[in-house]
Amino acid sequence: MASKLLQTIFDKRMLKDSVTKLSPLYLAKKSPVMFTVEVGFFLVLAIGLLPTMSTEFVNENRVFYIESAVILIVTVWFATFSESLSESQARAKVDSLKNLEKEVMAKKLVDGKEISVKSTSLLVGDRVRVYAGEIVPRDGIVHSGKAFVDESMMTGESNPVFKEQDSPVMGGTKVANDSIVIEITSEAGKSFLDEMVGLIESAKRPKTKNEIALTILLAGLSLIFVTVVGTMLFFGYYLGYHMDISVLIALLVALLPTTIGGLLPAIGVAGINRLARDNIVVKSGKGIEAAGDCDVLILDKTGTITEGARRAIGFIPMEKFTEQDIGEASYAASFSDHTHEGTSIIELANEKKIEPPFMMEIMTARPVEFSSETRCSGIEFSQKKNLSGTQTPTLKTSLPRTRVCAKVEGLEESNIPVKILKGSVEAILKIATNVNEPELRWKAQEISKNGGTPLAVAINDEIIGLISLKDTLKKEIRTKLDEVRVSGITTVMITGDNQLTAQVIAKEANIDQIIAEAKPSDKLNRVVEEQLKGHVVGMIGDGTNDAPALAKADVGLAMNRGTAAAREAANMVDLDSDPSKILKVVKLGKQLLMTRGAITTFSIANDVAKYFAILPAMFMKDNPKMEILNVMQLHSPESAVLSTLIFNAIVIPILIPLSLKGVKYKPELPEKTFIKNMMIYGFGGVVFPFAGIKAIDLLLSVFMR
Amino acid sequence: MDIIILLVVLVGSLGLAVIFGRYMARLITYEKRPLEKTMGQVENGFYRIIGVDRYEQMTWKQYFLAIVITNVIAAGFLMAVLLYQNNLPLSPKPGLSLDLAFNTAASFVTNTNLQHYAGEQQLSIFSQMVGLIFMMFVAPASGIAAAFAFIRGFIRKEFGLGNFYVDFTRIILTLLIPVAFFSALLLLFLGSPQTLDSTITMGTLQGGVQTIPTGPVASLESIKELGSNGGGFFSANSSHPFENPNGISNVFECILMLVIPLSLPIAYAHLIGKGRGVSILAAMMIGFGVMLALGLSESSGPAGLETRFGSFGSTLFLETSVATNTGAANAALSGMSPNAVIGFFLGMFVQAIPGADGTGMMMMIIFVILTLFLVGLMVGKTPEFMSMKINPRDVKLAAFVFLIHPALILIPTVLAYTTGSAHDTLGATTPATFTQVLYEYSSASANNGSDYLGTLANTPFWNWSTAWIMLIGRYAPIGLMLAVAGSFTLRDRKEVVEPIKTSGFLFVGVLSVMVFVLTALTFFPFLVMGPFSI
Questions:
Q1: How far is B347 from chain A (nearest CA, A)?
Q2: What would the pLDDT profile of A530-556 be if each residue is shown by its tens digit?
């Protein structure tokens, strides 16, 4: 750790940067406060070199001037150093992130032949062939072929969607079967990492609104102090004090908000950098700041609040059947379903030690694939009369017979094809009518009430029972959400689930509001609605249909696995595609603003002690009454001025870690945060320099006798 | 006894402010007032005369322009009266010099009332009555109207800041004139004269004949205090027995000075929230309390003080007068203790504890905006004022308001020394004379009007320099502050909860500290070089 730190500190490019940034031209444009300090440096240096220029206003010895000049330029360098340090940290992070940026290989068709190329090199109009299991490299339309495409990562819809010629396909989706030729229709997105690099490089970095407002305030304060110190020269002179220009410059520099002025750029870059450490790429500084203001978060249920993978948690039989029955039927219906849900059903059955007796039939059965018309899946037994005839007896003897088993046998014997299907209650009701419908609906509702999703299982026209599927809450999501709520943020959960299920999950995760049975357009509507009420809205998204909402939201966090359109529209991209990171972004945004506020307050509060150090030094020789102001009892006027300047300079590097790490943020009432910060940085800012200046003065007095 | 007097002043002014504040709230929203019909008819007559459409609403620029135009016309009229008073009726006296006339016109139109002339000797009754008393209504009415427009900026959405001519007419006719009239009657009863004769001649005890200057003193006196004007009929101002006959009138005048500045936060409370208004009032009272405490911490006089009022009566009156930027004086400033003088400076530097009629309230809200800027950053939110985002432009305008004041005080003070004018007028430069020069410009820039120099400063240098400072110190901040209100009125209102309430103990505490720290950081060295070193 220590060696790593040293390595970054002695990074050559960074040191070079910090020195080139000393250029007055650069400072005049970027940091008016530091520019003023540098002008002061040139003035004091000139006096030090030509002490004879004035007898009236130059009356200290040469060493003092040179010392002061050195401290002044070091002050400026500390500021540029802090900026370069945070920039170099961010640059290093970007390099490591580049490896994470998503790039897939695509098979481009050139003269009928397939050539493997990187997806980023594709141009609009290129055709690529995508095989089953491969990822569609970019948005396009199907040129030829037909296939099912798994769009679950974009839309959350877990059922593959059928695509044929001219259907649009989204980049990032996965072809489930067959192969299709796709014509690329979208431009390669400008790499968002490049945008981030632009944010880090100081020359290109645009200032955010808050930064501008703060810079104006600091410039205003600086102008006031220039007026104050400038006129003091005259008043002191006319009142018969021995005024010294360099002491006045020292007073000016001490009063100027150099601490915040010097650290302001570093704080901004550090915010970007800290997000990058969590693999979040920031595309605009505005986004981070807005994150701090966020008071409404629109969260997708799937993936953010819940794991996004539903698991079977129970089998609920209809009145006529037992748990064993529905277990067996579910097992059969899920046998060829290799989705997460399907395997979880088999696992649950295994856990409950349920295994259907008619395994042979199941294994030889023909899978019934999920289709968008029927919206159910399962198996259909092959009709092999002979085989079934020979096998039935063995089954009968090895296992106890269940109603389902008997039913299957009965059907087979009467030569009726056996179909065991599972699907949503509505879908199954369409094909299976032999059921007590009120009972089924009541049981399904019970499952919903507990936050689960019911799946009905039917053998031919008879419904056996229900499988309860449930999405599990993400680890620690509740604590995370509670933290967010304390700081006054309203959470809104958006989900395709029905009202009941949504309410249960919302209750479990402690969510304030829900939008159930949501259509894709609901997200955008909600964002606009909240913004009209004056809220600052943060949201996450990954699908193309999220793009308008992401663009409209004040903080839009796109998932890296999402479509290019989504990543383009959002102002941040999470390379890990972890939606719950939005909470982290909000926290960081707040921290960023707080760090600025805290250091500004500290910087201004420091001025009190600085007056008490320099004013006595300036006036005491000529006016004994000023002795009362000399509360610190500093060694000599020279040591008072020098120790104030040294303190002023050294505070910058002392606060570099704070500005890079950010002020501690605890989720609590804003009022509490305010009082705490005010005590530490406001009150502490008044007291600390008294101690600091006195300590430095004691040290200096050893050398100065 | 002293404590009872202090309580009478505070309770009296706050009590009246509660009544006035409610009435002002109605004026701000153009709601129905008591006697609306009768008053409406009178006012409509005025609108017809000046040709104003009373339903027209103005943008901040139009409103500001209307203030400036009205004030320029009024100031031009006053200047003409002063220059040519020898040709005018009622005890004509020689016309004033151009620089003195300009200074006096600027001084009265800006609600400053810095007096480089001796009223009873240099001005005719006509100039005092038609010129000055008229202006003593125009100036505070302009200031109060500006504050009305400013407050509207925060409660209205996109329909302008109101109509200046309507506000101006209504403030003068239905607020200032009635109150001033009854106050004048009370002062008359307490012993102030009200006559068109310029002198009374009477025999002295020793048998000689004495000529005593007099005039319409009571009517001038009441609006002088009520309108935070401060320009006395006599050069002795409120220490003259005609202007301030006894202890009761001393207390009454203090109440008059405080009432309008204190009723604006009450109006604000009615319109924007009880807690918010009361908190602003509390912050003002804390500042005023500090001034009083400074003044009372050290006994003043006895040289330069009226024996009728003593140290307490003089300090109470002067601190009140400076705090409200009235500038009336019932004792010579040179008789006041250094601590009391530091208190005066504090009042003039802050200009908002409670400050002049109208502008004090505006200034305090600018402090509130700046405080909220820092508060917002401290809790990790983009700063907001009343749930409206504070943007860089607001900060820029507010920073200018804060920059103008020290620049207008310090730079001219330097000029007074480099040109030698200070030396010519006051002799050797000592902390005491430096204090006087600094005070002169602080008073001019804050539109206060109290001063050490008086007729000593009737030289072209002082007249021109202070005149321009008074003008810039008045109109630049009003323009900037109206611009702030103008941009807020365009902003979206929200129902969002503020992260830190803009009311309650915490906020009052933070606001007070902010006011104090910002002022101290700017002016501390000068207080050290000036009054502190006396």
A1: 19
A2: 888 778 888 887 776 778 888 888 888
* CB-closest option in A593, A611, A681 to B524: A611
Tokens 């109603």 correspond to what residue?
Answer: A403
Query: What is the number of structural domains in chain A?
Result: 3
Q: Is residue A683 marked as binding?
A: no
pLDDT score for A693: 94
Do strands A513-515 and A490-494 pair parallel, antiparallel, or not at all (unpaired)?
A: parallel
Do the beta carbons of residue B258 and residue B320 sit within 8 Å?
yes
**In degrees, to the nearest 5, what angle opens at C-alpha B141 toward C-alphas B111 and B88?**
70
pLDDT confidence bin for A308, thresholds 50/70/90: low
Give backbone dihedrals phi and psi of A8, rounded to 5 degrees, phi first: -65, -35
Whether residue A590 and residue B410 make contact (CB cut-off 8 A), yes or no, is no
**In this predicted structure, what is the pLDDT of residue B481?**
93
Residues B92 and B217 grouped into a single domain: yes
| ipTM surpassing 0.85 | yes
> Is residue A190 domain-resident?
no
The order of strands in the sheet holding A147-150 is A161-163, A147-150, A174-175
Residue A596 lies in domain: 2-94+201-279+587-704
The residue from A524, A553, A574 where one domain ends is A574
Residues B23 and B108 in one domain: yes
Does B510 lie at the interface with A, CB-CB under 8 angstroms? yes
Q: Choose among A178, A75, A89, A84: nearest CA to A132.
A: A178
What's the rounded Cα separation, in Å, for the pair A74 and A85?
A: 16
Domain membership of residue B451 (yes or no) is: yes
Contacts of B383 in chain A (CB under 8 A): 210, 213
Q: Would strands A127-131 and A147-150 be described as parallel, antiparallel, or unpaired?
A: unpaired
| pLDDT per residue as tens digits for the range A354-391 | 888 777 778 888 888 777 677 788 888 876 554 444 44
Name A382's Cβ contacts closer than 8 Å, sequence gap at least 6: A361, A364, A365, A366
Q: Which one of A216, A626, A671 has the shortest CB-CB distance to B399? A: A216
Q: What are phi and psi of B492, to 5 degrees?
A: -70, 135
Of B378, B399, B496, the CB nearest to A674: B378
Q: Is B417 on the interface with A (CB under 8 A)?
A: yes
Chain B residues lying within 8 Å of A219, measured CB to CB = 399
State which of A408, A442, A470 marks the end of a domain: A470
Does B319 fall in a domain? no
Q: Distance (Å) from the C-alpha of residue B377 to the closest C-alpha of chain A?
A: 4
Chain B CA closest to residue A488: B499
Contact B379, A670 (CB under 8 A): yes
Query: What is the CATH classification number for the domain harbouring A435?
Result: 3.40.1110.10
Establish whether A370 is an annotated binding residue: yes
Residues 472-501 of B with CB under 8 A from A: 492-497, 499-501
From chain B, the residues in CB contact with A675 under 8 A are: 506
* Residue B379 contacts A, CB cutoff 8 Å: yes
Tell me if A337 is assigned to a ligand binding site: yes
Q: Which of A597, A626, A629 sits opposite B377 (nearest CB)?
A: A597
A313: distance to nearest CA of chain B, Å? 42
Choose among A599, A36, A504: nearest CA to A265. A599
